Amino acid sequence: MSELTIWLVIAILTIVQGFFLSVAILVKSKGKNTANILLSLFVFLISLSLIGRLSYYFSSVGDTFLPGGLVDIIIFCYGPLSFFYLKNLFDGKYFPTWKDYPHFIPLAIYSVYFFYRLLWPQQFENSIFYSNMGSVYFFLELLAIVQNAIYIFIGYKLVNDYEKRIVKELSFLPQVKYVKTFLAVVSVIILFWFYGFVSKYVEGLQFSTVFTYNFVWLLISFLTFLFAYFSYFDSDILSIPEKQTKYEQGYFSADFYDSLKDELENVMNSEKPFLNPKLTLSELARQMGKNQRDLSRVINEHYQKNFYEFVNTYRIQKFKELVQLEENKNYTILFLAHESGFNSKATFNSAFKKITELTPREYINKITS
Questions:
Q1: 244 in a domain, yes or no?
Q2: What is the pTM (predicted TM-score) of this model?
Q3: DSSP assignment, residue 343?
Q4: Residue 146 belongs to what domain range?
Q5: What is the gyration radius of the CA atoms in the chain, in angstroms?
């Protein structure tokens, strides 16, 4: 089987997978999750883009500009769509307004070129653009690379900002590892793409023909579908908690907050809500019949901790109690961590090390030596 045949088979399978995922995500979201509706649209458009890539090999006419050029518009939608998706995923419902027009400037530039060439071919052939097609393609491809690189950077910032904010409201960290991995791998691909782009114009640079324009976008499309696949089957991505309202300065006396602090400690020790691995600040407030902002203020000011750190303190104490019981000596550390309310090994190890300055294994060796 030739290299071209392999490429075509992979591309066709990826397209089929993409259309299936776009429908599956849309059905699962049931019209209620804006982020996943955007993700469904994202995957659908990229599937169309790959069809355009294949048109170069199956077109019966010499000019493949129409099918190929039309779907290339999607390349300039890739960055803005990823931005709106992550914005909805991490910050709740977000709809583009007229203030978001800068996101579509590269798309507008390419669209002007495309429709000018498509609708007025004779004028185009007599224009300065036709006589300088090399420069036109250079500018458009460089624009696409720069645009997508900028949105990768924006994606990193959205993830980091979300993680910094969410520890104030959740007792667990949502699994954003897929987002981070996706952004990291796409970053590497774009670097290869940029090097391949530069190598076409700088004499002496050698670059493998593997990372051609088509293959780069096949990889990015495949990664997008892979991310969508994990999003579909991982509820931590599909249902990241909505942004909570920050507490404001209260009007109650210091005695009120001292009393609330005592009540909070009583609930944590007697009812042990921290054993729920998905405990949120709003849920704890409802359980206690208290205002979420007042509860947040008590945790922040009296304990000098965010909600995430506060709850994990109780979980680690519970783990210390469990690990010292004789009947638990045959259980694994991970099992006891789950029994203490942690939802993942990574979260447990990180929290344990931060609070005790020891790893779980070091702590166990210390108390058993």
A1: no
A2: 0.68
A3: S
A4: 3-238
A5: 27
